[in-house]
Each structure stands twice: as C-alpha cells, then as structure tokens.
Design brief:
- This protein has helices at 11-20, 37-47, 63-72, 88-95, 109-147, 157-166, 185-205, 229-243, 262-274, 305-321, 328-341, 346-364, 372-384, 391-409, 413-428, 435-442, 446-457, 461-478, 483-489, 495-506, 510-514; strands at residues 2-7, 28-34, 51-55, 78-83, 101-104, 174-181, 209-214, 217-222, 248-256.
- By secondary structure, the chain is α/β, with parallel strands linked by helices.
- Strands 2-1-3-4-5 form a five-stranded parallel β-sheet, sandwiched between helices. A four-stranded antiparallel β-sheet has the order 7-8-6-9, sandwiched between helices.
- Helix 1 links the parallel strand 1 and strand 2 (28-34).
- The longest helix has 39 residues, at 109-147.
- Residues 3-120 form the Response regulatory domain.
- Keywords: Cytoplasm, DNA-binding, Phosphoprotein, Transcription, Transcription regulation, Two-component regulatory system.
- The modification 4-aspartylphosphate is found at residue 55.
- It is found in: Cytoplasm.
Length: 516
C-alpha cells in the first residue's frame, strides 16, 4: 500500500477525504492527518509517507511553506495541492516544487481518483526503478570485489570482458582510490560503513563510478582519471567532508585503461597508504610519489650507522647548548634522511627519533635536577613520538620541544648571559667587537663583565676573541685562501697585526701554516 498524509485546516474536509475516497481500492492507505503544515512536518518525519495531500491556505504554516520545508529537508514524496479558485496564482508557485497534481475545491471524487491513479503509477514505476537499481548496483559491486581479487590465469579474457560489459563496467579508464581510516579497530567497522554510505550516495549518485568496502578499506572505482592536482584535491575534500572528524588516509593507484589492470592499481594504492608516514599531509596520495623529501645525507664509504648517529647527536647537542636555534631543524632533517637512507620503516624511524631525543634530553640535563613537571612533559613528548601520523609532524614537534626544553634546561641568570655572550662572539667575530659594547647591552659595567667572562672562560675577552678569529683563519687558509683575504674576513684590518697575532697563538706565521 502507498502511504498518504492529509493536511488541511478544515476538519470536515479532512474527514470527508478519508471516508469518501476509495483509498484501498486505489492502492493507498491514509496513515495520518494534520491541521497545518507545522504539525504535518512532525508527522512526515515519523510516517515517511509516499504522498502528501495539502491545502494551500492554512494557519501557522501554509501549504506552500510546508512544501518548501519538505524539499529543503530532502523529502522527495509526491504532493497533491488543494486550493480555492482565488488561489490559482498562489498554487502555481507550489507546482514549481514538483507537485504531482493540483485540484480545486470542492474536491471532485472522480477527479481525485483519477489523479491518484496517475500518482500510483508514477510511484510504482519509481519503486521498480529503485529496486532494479539496487539489484544492478549490488551485482556490480559484487563484481567489483571480484576485480579487486587476484585474477586466475586460466580465466578466458573474452569471457571476462563480456561479463564486464554486462555489468556496464567496460569503461575507457579506471582509477582506484583506497581509503583507510585511522580509528581504533573496535570502532572501524562502524566508521567504514558510515563513510561508505556517504560516498556511495555522492559518487554513484553522480554516475562517477562504484563504491564498496573491503575491510580495512573503503574503495572507489572511478570511471574517469583524476588528472591534475585540482581534481585530486576536490575528491580529497569531498572525502574529508563526509568523514567529518574521522581521521583517514586516501591514495590512488593511478589510472589504467584495461579492466585486467585494476587489481595491480589496487595493490599500488594499498602500498601508497602504507607509506603515508613519509608523505605530504592532507592530500590524495599517489603511487611512487609519497616519500618524504629529505635532503641527501652526507655519508662516506665505511661510515657506521652508530658513528653517524653519534655525530648527529653531538651536533644537535652543541647547537642546542650554544643557543644556535637555526641549526636544529636542518640537523633533524638530516637525521630523517639518514634513517630513510638506512631503509627504516615507520616504526623504526619513530624508535630512532625516540632514542635521539632521549639522548639529547639526558645530555642537556646532565648537570641539573629535573623537576616532576619537567619529567611529565618529557614522558608525554617521548610517548607522543609513536602517535605521529606523519614524519613532517614528528619533525615539527621534536623541533619545538627540543628548543623549548633546551631553553628551560639551560643556565639561568649571569651564567646564561655569559653563554649568550660567547655565542655572540662566535657569530660576530669578524665585526668590531668591544667588551664595552656588550657590557652596555647586558647592563653591566665593563670591568665587571670582563671579570665574569674571565671566570667563565679562563680568558680575557680580547684574548678569547683573538683565538676565535685565528681558529677561523686557519680554516680559511686550509681551504686555499690568501693570507690577506683570510685576515680581512676574520676581522683584522691590518695584515701585519694579523701576522703578529697568528704567530703569538700558533708559534708560526700564516704563510708557514699555509705552506708547511
């Protein structure tokens, strides 16, 4: 039976329609009635009728407003409009919302019966079409599952093609997209089917392809290639919109033109999903384009992994201890490059970063007492390494934590200022540095700062500066630079003065050092 709801503010008319029309003989059953559109909306949500018969003029919410609300809420049931002669122009507006019929009051039973017969034929035809579609799509979906399984070598290609044609799956191009949800295993099945339902409505509703579930994936078989970043980003955005707050990974296996190649594209998409940790965030992953863009690690023949790791830890510690923040992220990227070059998978990379970070934290706190709050922060950070979905996020979080921790764990007060002063000298040794200038910046008297500096370093300020300059000059001379060029680059305006300083600290002239 086709369910009907009658909406009219006149009780007699509602009662008359229910008793005078031979509903059952016509294939209908009246399940409810309402006196205005607002009450009818509540009934529609509960009854979900196939047909609504509504008067145009009603209090609280009239018929036109009622139909507008039905359509905006997504209800597609048929509607028949009742109105007086004076409401004809008003009724024509409702017809634009796709009503199945328009009848003038007082209702003629024969006219109403004829209209109901036409509506019944339309509804029955739609039901048959929906049932056919459900059966056909189910069959196609089952066949899609077959295409996503390893193909038997003995299967006749001609028969395979014939069956694919019967299923209306013989397309010029195929593109497989695999979606994996990052949710606890206990909740995965529910989330998979929610995403499946939403994508099935969108993808199949627009005739873009088929959607199915093969746990742990939701799988799309698209009938046109995702050429261009814009198309891939648009599909990724659609998946994200349906998934809501559910975390997911989506990857394509690339475009193929033969149905026999669908399975190999499916395997490529799965492999891309597995490499997500090394991929760019928030985009549709592509086969062989997912690896993290790490710099080439400077590895010499014969280097041992342990030695390279220790070297990285030393350089990171020195940068953090000296307050050289700009070097920390490049060194962390270098570490990532080393781990990738070693062929480490996601879990191993996370374990390596755990080890590296833990060693740095111990070195930074070797001479200080760690408070309980700091211990909790360290534990939270180290455990969080294993929760990162992407290598880029792991690097960003490690960089942030180490910088903050080094600053908190570093020396305080005067000791910290002397350390900053030493770092400043190493960065600006080539400039005209004076102790009096630094004393003014740190708000100390020149003699007092000089004494603090000597107590910390064991050297007078000018002696320390000279030694830094001479050490840098030695590096430049070893690279083949001329003596006068090296002198100028390290901050000496007089070559003769540079000669005297170099000989004082090195026991020989710059020329003898360069050409022993």
């Amino acid at each position: 039976m086709i369910k009907v709801v009658i909406v009219d503010d006149e009780p007699k008319l509602r009662q008359g329609l229910q008793t005078l029309i031979p509903w059952e003989n016509l294939g209908f059953t009246v399940t409810a009635a309402a006196g205005n559109g607002r009450d009818a909306l509540k009934i529609v949500e509960e009854e979900v009728p196939d047909l609504v018969i509504a008067d145009i003029r009603m209090p609280v919410m009239d018929g036109l407003q009622f139909i507008q609300r039905l359509r905006s809420a997504g209800h597609q049931m048929h509607c028949i409009i009742l109105s007086g002669y004076a409401d004809f122009e008003y009724a024509k507006q409702a017809i634009t919302y796709g009503v199945a019929g328009y009848l003038v009051k007082p209702v003629n039973i024969a006219e109403m019966s004829a209209t109901l017969k036409l509506v019944r034929e339309q509804i029955e035809e739609e039901r048959l079409r929906r049932e056919w579609y459900r059966t056909e799509v189910t069959n196609r979906e089952l066949y899609l599952r077959r295409l996503l399984a390893p193909q038997e070598k003995t299967e006749d290609p001609a028969k395979l093609r014939s069956r694919i044609r019967e299923m209306d799956l013989l397309w010029s191009h195929y593109e497989i997209v695999v979606i994996s949800l990052r949710v606890p295993e206990a909740d995965r099945l529910e989330h998979l089917h929610q995403l499946y339902a939403g994508l099935k409505n969108g993808i199949e509703g627009r005739n873009m392809g088929l959607v199915t579930v093969i746990s742990p994936y939701v799988i799309l078989l698209l009938n046109s290639p995702l050429h261009g970043r814009q198309r891939r980003d648009h599909l990724y955005g659609e998946i994200r919109s349906i998934a809501g707050d559910t975390r997911f990974i989506a990857a394509t296996g690339g475009t193929v033109s033969e149905p026999e190649l669908i399975y190999s594209a499916y395997l490529k998409a799965q492999e891309a999903v597995k490499q997500v940790f090394f991929s760019a965030k928030d985009r549709l992953l592509e086969p062989e384009r997912t690896l993290f863009a790490a710099p080439e690690f400077p590895c010499e023949a014969g280097d041992k992994d342990e030695k390279m790791m220790e070297d990285l830890i030393f350089r990171l510690y020195y940068s953090l201890d000296a307050g050289n923040k700009t070097m920390v992220l490049p060194l962390l990227n270098e570490a990532a490059a080393l781990f990738i070059q070693q062929g480490q998978e996601e879990d191993s990379v996370k374990q390596s970063f755990f080890f590296l970070s833990n060693r740095l934290i111990h070195k930074l706190t070797a001479a200080s007492r760690i408070e309980l709050k700091e211990t909790q922060n360290i534990s939270r950070f180290l455990n969080g390494i294993y929760q990162q979905d992407y290598l880029s996020d792991l690097l960003e979080e490690t960089h942030r934590f180490l910088l903050e921790f080094a600053e908190d764990a570093g020396p305080k007060g005067k000791e910290q200022e002397i350390k900053k002063m030493i770092g400043f000298i190493h960065r600006h040794y080539a400039e005209d540095l004076k102790l009096s200038t630094l004393a003014g910046l740190l708000n100390y008297s020149t003699p007092y700062l000089g004494q603090l500096f000597r107590n910390k370093t064991g050297e007078y300020f000018n002696t320390y500066l000279d030694k830094v300059r001479i050490q840098k000059a030695k590096e430049l001379l070893a690279q083949g630079m001329k003596v006068y060029e090296a002198a100028e680059l390290v901050g000496y305006t007089s070559v003769n003065y540079f000669f005297s300083k170099f000989k004082k600290y090195e026991g020989r002239s710059p020329s003898d050092y360069k050409n022993p």
